Amino acid sequence: MSAPATASPRELLLTKKQAAKLTKAELLLKPEFTLAGPGRHAFKGTLRFSVCTEAQCEIKTEEVAWTAVSK
């Protein structure tokens, strides 16, 4: 994950240990960060994961983005 200059930490590596929820059907990550000031802050990152069947695992990469609003 990369964060705007107004947020800390600037980069964050999350593993399955930090998952708020991890099942065969769902992964929920809740990264912690601090915003330096009010306003809208755009975040982006790369989510790397694997999708596995009994026969094989396929490595996937998805770009993700979201906006946090601080008052």
Descriptive overview:
There is one protein chain. With 71 residues, this protein is mainly beta. The protein is built from no helices and 6 strands. The model has no long low-confidence stretch (mean pLDDT 82).
**Helix-strand pattern, N to C?**
EEEEEE
Class from helix and strand fractions: mainly beta
Tell me the quaternary state. single chain
Q: Helix content range of the residues, please?
A: under 10%
Distance between the termini: 23 Å
Indicate the low-confidence ranges by residue numbers: none
Main sheet attributes: strand count, strand direction, barrel closure: 2 strands, antiparallel
Strands across the major sheet, in which order? 1-4
The general outline is elongated
Q: What is the compact description of this entry?
A:
This protein is an all-beta fold and 71 residues long. Helices cover 0% and strands 55% of the residues. The strands form 3 sheets. It has a two-stranded antiparallel ribbon with strand order 1-4. The chain has a two-stranded antiparallel ribbon with strand order 2-3. A two-stranded antiparallel sheet has the order 5-6.
List keywords for this structure.
two-stranded antiparallel sheet; 0% helix; mainly beta; 71 residues
